[in-house]
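**Fold tokens**
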Amino acid sequence: MRIVIAEDSVLLLDGLTRLLTAEGHTVTGYRTADELVAVLGDPAADLPDVLVTDVRMPPTHTDEGLRAAVHLRGLHPGLPVLVLSQYVEQRYARELFASDARGLGYVLKDRVADVDDFLAALARVATGGTALDPEVVAQVLARSRRSLSDVLSPREREVIALMAEGRSNAAIADRLVVGAAAVEKHVTSILTKLDLPPDSDDHRRVLAVLRWLEDTPTNGARP
């Protein structure tokens, strides 16, 4: 794959570049969001297979990386983006997933140390899947305005949290140690309770995750 990385930490940028190059990928790195937008901001730009970007980048180290990602997704709908963050930036996660969650991911930087999980998340995003860090999922669920407790059962909340991580029904079944039929039943119930219109299964799953994120308040996020 052709991968673009926007990361101001020299050590992390170098480490990711070495890791991904060793996996056979072609990597281009940028140290600022402005550099990233200058290269990919042209509607006719030669796009990478996936963009990996930090949230906080120069000059203010607030949300430049995220705003660049949102801007580029607006110019190039469907551009796969995997966001890296030092913390669970809840409001940033919500903004990133505000429209279409397909081909989007949000992973904590600490998770990069687990190479297999990081590579799996990257591959999932590059192929149009959704990847949310388990810690992001846990904190978003904990802070949810209603925690969906008025709508979903405890088991259904477990299932939708795993759906948000991008897991398939089979993977959810393995994680919860239940049968595939039971997971399918829970997923169907979730989609029905959230009043999602008939569509392809993958699209409805994405809509379910978006609905779940939309139920989360913006307050309480780390500044």
Remarks:
- Residues 216-223 have pLDDT under 50 and may be disordered.
- The chain has ten helices and six strands.
- The two ends are 34 Å apart (CA to CA).
- The longest helix spans residues 180-193.
